[in-house]
UniProtKB/TrEMBL annotation:
Domain of life of the organism encoding this protein: Bacteria
InterPro entries in alphabetical order: SpoVT-AbrB_dom, SpoVT-AbrB_sf
DNA-binding among keywords: yes
Species this chain originates from: Geobacillus kaustophilus (strain HTA426)
Keywords recorded for this protein, A-Z: DNA-binding
Family matches, as Pfam families: MazE_antitoxin
Domain SpoVT-AbrB: 2-48
UniProt-recorded name of the protein: Hypothetical conserved protein
DNA-binding found in the keyword field: yes
Amino acid sequence: MKATSKLSSRGQVVIPAEIRKTLGLAEGDDLTFIVNEDGEIKVEVTKKYRLSQLIGILKTNQPFRPVEEIRDEVYRTMGAKELKDGEEN
């Protein structure tokens, strides 16, 4: 695929819609420009994802637990540890 764009007076380049669509680019995506010895430019895309988009991407053998349940367990554990530490002093 090949497309043409112009450099604006502010140094900005518009990536043609066809290329944005093909690469799945969206506003806010980071692009890294790499210039090789021959003067060719390579553009690498770094996608940004919301945490909610990443849920389920990593496999685990643990069942899903609501955040509230995990928080309650941490509080109970911390409370029990503080009580135990207090008895030792």
